[in-house]
Design a protein that fits this description.
This protein is of the alpha/beta class and 319 residues long. It contains eight helices and 13 strands. The strands form four sheets. It has a seven-stranded parallel sheet with strand order 3-2-1-4-5-6-11, sandwiched between helices. Strands 7-10 form a two-stranded parallel ribbon. Helix 3 links the parallel strand 5 and strand 6. Helix 2 packs parallel to helix 3, helix 4 packs parallel to helix 6 and helix 4 crosses helix 8. The longest helix is centred in the N-terminal third of the chain and has 22 residues. The two termini are 37 Å apart. The structure holds nicotinamide-adenine-dinucleotide. The site of nicotinamide-adenine-dinucleotide has 30 residues, from helix 1, strand 2, helix 2 and strand 5.
Amino acid sequence: MNVLITGGAGFIGSHLTKLHLKKGDYVIVIDNLSTGSKNNINELLNNKNFKFIHNDVLTFDFKLLNFNLNLIYHLASPASPNHHSLISYHHLAKETMLVNTLGTLKLLELTKKHQAKFLFASTSEIYGNPLIHPQKEPYFGNVNPIGPRAVYDEAKRFGETLTSYFWNKEKVDARIARIFNTYGPNMRIDDKRMIVNFICQALKDEPITIYGNGKQTRSLCFVDDLIDGLFKLMINKNTKSEVVNLGNPEEHTILEYAQIIKKLTNSKSEIIFKEPLPADDPEKRCPDISKAKKLLSWQPKVSLIEGLKKTINYFKNIL
Ligand SMILES: NC(=O)c1ccc[n+]([C@@H]2O[C@H](COP(=O)([O-])OP(=O)(O)OC[C@H]3O[C@@H](n4cnc5c(N)ncnc54)[C@H](O)[C@@H]3O)[C@@H](O)[C@H]2O)c1
């Protein structure tokens, strides 16, 4: 099969690319490297089944592709919510809004032309600051259209609307993955998401900083589990026009993550608390994955300790 992965040089996209290459597919990655890294795909550049196009989804002329595409995954988008990161969607606000809206439209039209299958990488952020826990797919969310996270949340929400329009009216074979917090090797050090911060601080024996009192909970999915879910959602027969949460429902407090990482790295770091908690930081977000279990026979398999050990090893090698 010929597979197009936008954002394939990013954290999640690079793992998905490797999975499809392992399955014997031909994989084309288009990525402008705005938040991804060529390091994530360097080892693939000589693979005859792999083609890297360093370009922007919004401006690239897809007519230049001389391939009949079978599967199209749209993952291209800044994803870090951290205000302090230059690669966050706050700093790349217009880019984030456009790639998830006009970019999604362009890729859906391409999918239609190729009679391919399409997967839109949406996010748990479409639930905003949720009023019900855990979140099931029919929940509409609680999002402020002009709030601090709106450039990402609302662009993803409109990306979902476009995708559903194409499956309803244009009969395109499409599906939506609502991805919850994911971690693992190939995350960027400078994206400043919690796990990366904690691991890097612990490895350097610097103070591990927690914003707020550390009682906020997070549920984190290891990337190998996530891409297994994305793959099944794309490939399985009964997934057309479906919206599916993919994440790990196991919840821990932020303080627990800090303590576990400190222990696994044998770090001398002390854990310190800083105020204030960012205004837009959700107290709690946790997926209900009963639909994924039923529809895809999928659930996360990698334990937190195993996933963290692999991630810590990755950062040990690049620090
Ligand atoms: N990582 C998570 O926890 C998480 C959670 C929910 C949703 N998601 C979604 O999954 C997808 C991948 O996220 P990630 O964590 O791998 O992020 P990432 O930043 O590592 O990967 C995104 C990739 O898209 C590329 N890109 C951005 N804009 C582009 C454009 N206009 N043209 C071409 N390439 C472009 C970037 O260079 C990068 O390589 C995103 O759509 C994100 O919104 C991720």
